Amino acid sequence: MKKEVKVWAPATVANLNVGFDSLGCALSNPGEEMILRRTSAKGVVRVKAVHGAELDLDPKRNIAAVAAQSLLTAMGNPCGIEMEIFKEIMPGSGIGSSAASAAAAAVAANELLGAGLRPNELLPFALDGEQLASGARHADNVAPALLGGLVFCPPIGAPISLPIPMDWHLLVMHPQIEVKTADSRSVLPRTVPFDAAVLQARWMGAFISACHRDDSEQAMLALEDLLVEPHRQDLIPHFKEVKQLALSSGALVGGISGSGPSTFWICKDRENSETVAKAFRSFIVGKDTPFHLHHSQISAQGAHVVA
Amino acid sequence: MKKEVKVWAPATVANLNVGFDSLGCALSNPGEEMILRRTSAKGVVRVKAVHGAELDLDPKRNIAAVAAQSLLTAMGNPCGIEMEIFKEIMPGSGIGSSAASAAAAAVAANELLGAGLRPNELLPFALDGEQLASGARHADNVAPALLGGLVFCPPIGAPISLPIPMDWHLLVMHPQIEVKTADSRSVLPRTVPFDAAVLQARWMGAFISACHRDDSEQAMLALEDLLVEPHRQDLIPHFKEVKQLALSSGALVGGISGSGPSTFWICKDRENSETVAKAFRSFIVGKDTPFHLHHSQISAQGAHVVA
Asked: In what helix (H) or strand (E) does residue B25 lie, and over which residues does it extend?
């Protein structure tokens, strides 16, 4: 039995325009680490420290601790767990900060306790953590954080790993403001035009089919969002200008990551991604809101043990 | 060069609940035949006879003639065409009567003229015919009538042939009433709940993914219709009773075929399909509306030359 486990978990982009509440992908960057240690206090989870962000240390109100506690309890509390969290993905960034914590904790606890569960079997425990953050058991961030790659969550049944478009270079732009999930939900309309609903379903079908056929280009073309972006874009600082700038600099498509404020922009290669980043940096000069930029591809690996 | 060509074209079920205006499959039964003959009157299409239904013989107002004329014109009018149509799929039945005519005519003219076009290349010509019937260039019936199998029409680009769930036995129930396309469109709502739109897209994604993964059972489970059936069911005689009867007799899922009035019911084997048919026949006794029943599977073949 290991006494200490270190894991890495990826940031994730949920929705990807076309799949509100059901699609997400794992990023190769950023990601974050977490260390779990065995203690003798059976059934007790303690958050020793959180580095890089101010998070609640109370294990009942800490996402990672709730996920770890859930698995610990399911395993019959053979020991206790002490956690040390190295937060690299800013809470409220819209790139799955809480999902990464929940996934990392589940994977680390699984290893520490020798539970032997597979990533998809860890989903319920990670969702126990995610639920604390979002109030809902949406798996569109947690599933890719656990499984890696590109994941579709059907209305019933297990998440489905789709073939990964390996040639997508994602540039994530993160304005340093907080968009509260409650606000991002409240701007959504109660009804949408019938034709938009029909068309959105067709884009979803086109995307899923293109992925299964390994047609990365058609998959990209299908990243349309008729339902959400029109209503959420006003919550994102300078969204329209950023979008215009990204597309005119060579990004192929992009949109709001999860509920924002981060946006993602898909480029055909790293060079193109650098060009868009350069345009963003010029644009940011003199603006009130500072931004972080992340260059990433889709990570085939989800949360996993690194030591 | 052939002087005479005989083709067969399948009936089709469009929408399949989950894919309004974008999904359709070809049926092995019923289908219909059409004979085209070369004439010396260059560029002239003549409808010699229609057997089995009263259709307009004016080539400008006959679906098959319009499709044949479109291809004939594109080929530079090397000859004329005389058509004889054996109508087995009742117009207005909701199982792609006009699409079968349009597809049959395109395939027959292609062979007669030695045009050498592939089925997907014949789509624009067949759509010229279909447009006469429906006023729109929807390919959800025409594409499977031409290509056979199970076909998804994305918002842009060519129709996509999906792997066929070979174990679906479809029972089609056709009440002998006419539902006008205009009526079936007018009952549709202008808006739908946001949550229903999101969920419908997820079911579409689940269906397309299941087909690509050859998971016939999951595909069937995804045949959900939150957008259309609730509004169209009142146009179908006894729809709720028929549905209840079908499901309680062992049909696994089903719904309205295209814009109706036909309904389709998917069973696990032919025996089960016979059981449901027997229940339907008992139910029909004493009702005002006569019904036709068709036992079918998905036809891998679309419209094709038989002589």
From this structure: strand B23-39
Please tell me the CATH superfamily of domain A169-296, with its number: GHMP kinase, C-terminal domain (3.30.70.890)
CATH 3.30.230.10 fits A4-162+300-306, yes or no: yes
Q: Tell me how far apart the alpha carbons of residues B18 and B20 are, in angstroms, rounded to a whole number.
A: 6
DSSP 8-state secondary structure symbol assigned to residue A164: P
Compute the Cα dihedral for A245, A249, A254, A259 and give only its sign. negative
Amino acid type, B70: S
Interface check A74 vs B, CB under 8 A? no
Q: What angle do CA B280, B284, B287 make, to 5 degrees?
A: 155
Enumerate the residues of chain B whose CB falls inside 8 A of the CB of residue A160.
209, 213
Q: Estimate the share of chain B in helix, then strand, then coil, as percent rounded to the nearest 5.
A: 35, 25, 40
CB contact under 8 A, A208 and B205: yes
- Angle of helix A97-112 versus helix A123-134 axis, rounded to 10: 150
Give the tokens for residue A198.
Answer: 């029909």
| pLDDT at A284 > cutoff 80 | yes
Of B190, B194, B205, the CB nearest to A205: B205
Cβ atoms of B101 and B63 within 8 Å: the answer is: yes
Strand partners, A81: A38, A45
CA distance A23 to chain B (A): 9
CA neighbor of A106 nearest in space, from A121, A91, A96, A92: A121
Asked if B162 lies within 8 A of A204 by C-beta distance, the reply is: no
Mean pLDDT of A21-28: 97
Q: Is the peptide bond before A193 cis (omega within 30 degrees of 0)?
A: no
- Please give the Cα distance from B132 to B142 (Å, whole number): 13
- B4-162+300-306 and B169-296 share one fold: no
pTM of the model: 0.96
How far is Cα A166 from Cα A149, in angstroms, rounded to an integer?
9
What pLDDT does residue A136 have? 84
Sorted by sequence, the CB contacts under 8 Å of residue A53 that are 6+ apart come out as A87, A90, A91
Residue whose structure tokens are 């200490």: A4
Give, for B253, the enclosing helix (H) or strand (E). Answer: strand B253-256
Interchain proximity B198–A21, CB inside 8 Å: yes
Q: What is the pLDDT of residues A29-61, one digit of tens each?
A: 999 999 999 999 999 999 999 999 999 999 999
Question: Per residue in B100-128, is it b (16+ CB within 10 Å) or e — as a string?
Answer: bbbbbbbbbbbbbbebebebeebbbbbbb
Per-domain residue ranges of chain B: 4-162+300-306, 169-296
How many CB atoms are located within 10 Å of the residue A287 CB? Answer: 12
Question: In chain A, which residue's Cα lies nearest the Cα of B140?
Answer: A202
Q: How far is CA A258 from the centre of its chain?
A: 8
Instruction: HSE, CB side, 13 Å, CA atoms: give it for residue A80.
Output: 11
Structure tokens at B287: 């009702």
